[in-house]
């Protein structure tokens, strides 16, 4: 079988010289060109849309123009490699006449502010990541468990492992913080616009005033709810970011849930409080109207002289009574020091030989001047100074000699006296030194006896010519028939004394009544009338002061009475000396004489000692308990078994506010101490018997 091979013509394959591709107003860029270098011009605007300043002059060269020329050259070369020659091209892929492709260095590109394709792509990816993460995540309850598992398996490193992850997390924090004020401003603007529209409707009488208020309230409520929801969303987002970035090691899903519950609870509580406030507002209004007159009256009382007898309104400052008693303590200590141990004290105002207290006078003068229309009882530094000025004006003292009639001991008869001083002529080698008893000699006080044949023992108190002396020194004058040598401050006075014969008495005892002249202090204890006479008050203040010091005024004060009078008087004794021997002389007290003398000024007679005073209280049914204590009550202490009534050995006067006044001992004198409830055997109120 013959096989014929027929040779056919080779089929013609026609290929179009140019592929027809429909392009929507843009050129297609081959994938191969992605790796080629291209340029990206930085935006000339900053973050807020402001134009950046022009670039610096680059020496006449324009890198951007050069880069554009290079780009055109590359496009022309690309066309040639794709089979499109310059003659067959439409002219768009070739360089225009006169343009020359110039190579551009990386330094020139950097100065021109351009990025390579790869850099641009990486920057674009980072922006996309930030945008994706910054959007509010949608929380699906069913997916919470999956999210937690992802975190446990290492998902928290996702952002930090990617380039730009840390910047994304920081950007989120900044965006969240920065968004809050702008969000608040936006909500306020929305509310303002809504309010403006509603007011226009109201002006057009389309809505009533009630509807306007209701709509505005509804708008406010909507804004508040939106802000609450936003706060919850932000907390959820913060939890996710903390876990993904590893910046919140202490944060947990449980803690996030607790915070959200706490926020929602606070939102509800605010609503509840507002609701209850609206319901109770009328009740509060009624209570305010009822309480206002009472509050007003109390304020008026505190800003009047009556304020001195009311409770201290300030816990941070002492009471006016405490401050005033402190001034009396300092004053009495100065008076006693000036008078000396054996000196005498006399007063401008005395009654039956006893000091008349001006405590109330000083207090009321101050209250009339500085406590009327002002809280003068609040003892800040300014009011303390004002009270001190009033006190100094009404209480002062000066040196004096005081002649008093006392019960002295037996007469020693007429004695011969001489005189000496501390000069070398009188004392020789002992000139200027102390006496034989070790104390320095004092005029009108120091007396000397013969060392070998003393007329009386050392320490004996002698009264001669109305002056009380103490035997403190010795000499050698018995050979001249002299019993006592009297000390003087200067030699001329001692010489002029010579030898004089006088009658001498023992100071101790009560066999003789004699007049004794002592060096001492004269106290000007001015009363309110004396102060009015100074002319420092206005007519209205004078009338108010007289009214405040009247018996009618004092009777209207519930806490005022004999007990308060005694307490106030006792406060004026603080700072006086303690002495059992001179317990009835003004300026000297022991515990029982202080009680006895203070109550005697108000017509209540008490026994002389602490134990007999306690027995008097029990016998007359004047006992009280600790919880009943009022100013002026007596506190009897028992420290040992002394055989006296209830073993009482000490007594004090309660002055209120947890304090008491008592004559403590020779070292402390009369003091204002805190009330001590231990070792108390009895409480009493002598005023119950009046």
End-to-end separation in angstroms reads 170 Å
Outline the biggest β-sheet. 6 strands, mixed, barrel
CATH class of the domain at 561-690: Alpha Beta
In CATH, the topology of the domain at 561-690 is named: endopeptidase fold (from Nostoc punctiforme)
Count of DSSP-assigned helices: 19
Structure, explained:
It is a single chain. The protein is of the alpha+beta class. Among the domains are: 1-115, no CATH class; 127-251, no CATH class; 410-508, RlpA-like domain (Barwin-like endoglucanases), CATH 2.40.40.10; 561-690, Alpha-Beta Complex (endopeptidase fold (from Nostoc punctiforme)). 42% of the residues lie in helices and 16% in strands. It has 19 helices and 18 strands. The chain has helices at residues 63-81, 106-111, 117-134, 144-152, 158-161, 165-203, 209-245, 253-302, 320-339, 359-370, 381-394, 424-427, 491-497, 528-533, 539-548, 551-555, 562-571, 591-600, 610-619, and strands spanning 344-347, 350-351, 354-355, 395-408, 411-420, 446-450, 461-464, 467-475, 484-487, 500-506, 512-525, 577-578, 588-589, 634-637, 650-656, 659-665, 669-674, 680-684. The strands form 5 sheets. A 6-stranded mixed barrel has the order 5-9-6-8-7-10. A 5-stranded antiparallel sheet has the order 17-16-15-14-18, with helices on one face. A hairpin with a 2-residue loop joins strand 2 (350-351) and strand 3. Helix 3 crosses helix 6. The protein is elongated. The termini are far apart. Residues 15-52, 54-61, 63-67, 76-99 and 136-168 have low confidence and may be disordered.
